[in-house]
Amino acid sequence: MLNFKPQKTGIILVNYQDYAQHFLEACRDSLRLQSYPENYRSVYIVDNASSEVSFNYLKECFPEAIILTRSDGNYAAANNLGVKQAIVDGCECLVIANMDTVFTENWLEELVRASQSSSDIGLVQSKILLFREDGKRIINSLGNRFHFLGFGFTSEYGSLDREIKGYPEIKGYASGCSFLIKKEVFEKIGGYFEEFYMYHDDVDIGLKARLAGYKIILAPQSVVYHKYEFKRSIRMLYYMERNRLFLLLAFYRPLTLFLVLPFLLIMELGMLVYSLLGKWLPIKLKVCGYFLNPINWRKISTYRRNLRQIDKGYYKNIICFLASRIEFQEINNPVLRYLVNPLMFWYWRLVLFIQYFN
Length: 358
What we know:
The protein is α/β, with parallel strands linked by helices and 358 residues long. The protein has 13 helices and 11 strands. It has helices at 19-32, 52-61, 75-88, 107-115, 183-189, 201-211, 230-233, 237-251, 254-277, 281-292, 294-310, 315-321, 334-356, and strands at 9-16, 41-48, 66-69, 93-97, 101-103, 121-130, 139-141, 144-146, 152-154, 178-182, 215-226. The strands form 2 sheets. Strands 1, 2, 3, 4, 5, 6, 7, 10 and 11 form a 9-stranded mixed β-sheet that branches. A hairpin with an 8-residue loop joins strand 6 and strand 7. Helix 1 (19-32) packs parallel to helix 2, helix 8 (237-251) crosses helix 11 and helix 9 packs antiparallel against helix 10.
């Protein structure tokens, strides 16, 4: 067992309108029962798209939490606000967590303990299980994967829980549902990119941490139960689609973009057809409109320059960890399983082979 030294830790939760009224009480109760010393932990709730009603509810429901307010609903900016206040208050460990969760008693202690296992660890994700009334322990995420076409998805979703020893490295990124990031890492990578607004913000944090040379690990004894609903996440398709393409254009070096472009164009044509069938073509066209705007290309160019300031020569580590198959149960279908995934697998192997010699 590693020697464990409690560090001042800030837990950041983001509320949006009446979200807290559905989820905060159970989340609050589990936070109050944490084994982590009370004088070493603080809870920050950012009331996003704040109103008098939501602010008063948060104060009444969780009086010991520090309530911060924002008006525009930007999730990435809300996390930045919470983290910055935690840093001002002297927090060395920063924990981003969803409010639709219930934490086990040693959740926080195990996150901090795992972060102290090595100096090159930048992010630590909890073991995330699905919240179920029947008590079955079903995995939501053991670390998330990032596909070379920009899709993010959870690993081992829907599998039965199992014992995991040690602190295995996550090959993708830490799920924004529950992860710890060290203060020095957050500051070095520049925090959340607020242009994203919501979705893929956790991918961005993970990729930047890898670019800076840090590892991302799983803390399997830090367990959180997530009231996850896939349909809730797909309501914001515009941000999901826009941000995945933004990430590729920002992070990929010219050779990678050139090699990926043929398959990316094929996939985008397929997505247009799929959006027509799924009746979300206007959303897809809105995404296209974003990238036709010269102002947004300047944003991408500026962000690419910012990433070069972070890059410590670990770009190939990012490329090697990218997924070549989309393996997510909620969107699994025969076309994806038997045609698209095998094609992407072999195409990506070819891309890696070419990049290895450059």
